[in-house]
Specification:
By secondary structure, the chain is mostly helical. About 65% of the residues lie in helices and about 0% in strands. The chain is built from 10 helices and no strands. It has helices at about 5, 10-50, 90-95, 110-125, 130-155, 160-170, 180-205, 210-225, 230-250, 265-285. Helix 6 (about 160-170) packs antiparallel against helix 7 (about 180-205). About 30% of the residues are buried.
């Protein structure tokens, strides 16, 4: 039996998707935590270079990226061993606390791992052992990372949004999710729609209603799913964003002037459109 035939056996590919998703979820936690810090370090280094005199040398900082330095407890700086880094199980085994200092570990780590694993397994089951399933899983991983980063920092890093956009165009050269023409139009239209909303809002209120990362994210979703899905994505994200915003203002006394990240709503709407976009559109058209 070949490897492809083994993956085609019932339950094998979804189980593999679940396991790989759990492992990737652990890595996504690193991306979510470190990528904004890496961006900040780059900005500080650029500012230091601009401020320094030509003859003055700028001190080189210690390496800091997704792999260096080794992960450690933020409270006591104890290194995290391989056994302590097993997705979900290590958190349960440690009872949510550092093995050395007993400082609490954020529950977000196992939550991200669980969501990544379950979503990967579901996409593998839904789409089967195909290239489309692998592409959809990678698309979901990127959206999950962007969601968490935007919730934490209100940033949507170009290092994720731009490769996601180009990846959507490359994937659809062979029409995996839509034809290439629709993907190109979707990328351009997705960016320009929110760009236009941004400038209309800014001209009317003299304030910035959203960031450029939101334009790029919607452009990336358009590149993956085609321009036909953009109305659904925009409608879903706007409705959910408005509902959550009203609830925060009413129940959590969230100030109206406090910005609310829009990226998570775009990402969630993009996943919904990927999984059920055609069914939702067809049901809507039947109602009309």
């Amino acid at each position: 039996m070949t490897a492809l035939e083994s993956l085609a056996q019932p339950g094998v590919f979804p189980a593999l998707g679940l396991i790989v998703g759990l492992l990737v979820g652990s890595f996504l936690n690193v991306v979510i935590h470190r990528l904004p810090k890496m961006m900040e370090r780059v900005w500080r280094e650029q500012c230091a270079e601009l401020d320094a005199a030509p003859a003055q040398s700028v001190a080189q900082p210690e390496p800091y990226n997704l792999f260096v330095p080794r992960s450690s407890c933020p409270a006591c700086d104890a290194p995290i061993t391989a056994l302590q880094n097993v997705p979900i199980l290590s958190y349960l085994w440690l009872r949510g606390r550092c093995a050395r200092c007993q400082a609490p570990i954020s529950a977000r780590y196992p939550i991200v791992e669980a969501i990544t694993g379950l979503l990967s397994g579901y996409l593998a089951w839904r789409l089967g052992p195909t290239g489309a399933a692998v592409a959809a899983i990678v698309f979901a991983w990127a959206l999950l990372a962007l969601t968490a980063i935007d919730l934490d920092t209100q940033l949507l890093p170009d290092s994720i949004t731009l490769p996601l956009l180009w990846g959507g165009l490359l994937i659809n050269i062979d029409g995996v999710f839509t034809d290439l023409r629709s993907a190109v139009v979707g990328a351009v239209a997705g960016y320009l729609v929110l760009w236009a909303v941004y400038w209309v809002f800014k001209l009317l209120t003299k304030k910035e209603g959203m960031g450029y990362g939101d334009f790029k994210l919607l452009g990336a979703i358009g590149a993956w799913l085609g321009w036909q899905m953009l109305p659904l994505v925009i409608l879903l994200s706007a409705l959910v964003g408005a509902l959550v915003g009203v609830c925060l203002i009413v129940f959590a006394r969230h100030g109206r002037s406090v910005p609310i990240p829009f990226g998570p709503y775009l990402a969630g709407a993009g996943l919904i459109a990927l999984l059920w976009g055609h069914q939702i559109t067809e049901a809507y058209l039947r109602i009309l």
